[in-house]
Amino acid sequence: MGTIPKSVLKGQMQPADPEARRRALLVVAVAAVVGLGLVGWLSLETARIEALFALDQEAAGRQARNLFLGVTWAAAAVALLAAVVIWRIAMEVRCSGRYPPPGARVLRDTMVRTGEQAACIARVGFVTAGLLAIAAPALVVLGHRLVRALATP
To answer: Cα dist. 125→43, 120, 128 in Å?
Structure first.
């Protein structure tokens, strides 16, 4: 078990930023609305493809593949974006030697961690970002291979 940094022993806290809370709530609300809109759009697209299937199976198959690959690419883009954000935060933690980094706007009162605790948080961030960065292209490759496997008789 490692030693506890002096700043933690003193109970040093970084206070929550009310504006950051409001922005986070707005981001979650917008993401929920956009997500619900996308689910509705995907349902309509799926119904349209099903209707087309009765008329032209090849065209319906092409559109279904394109829709699947589009969703796969979008998921990969979100994973890459998350990897970049997490990597950036981990770099700030590593360079500053503390978590949260100086100037960070936190959503709730957060205990300041320094030394080995901050370094451990940075390492977890780097590993998480690396795994997401690897998973994104892997998702696209697997999606394309799945489409190709399903298309071959």
So the answer is: 35, 9, 5
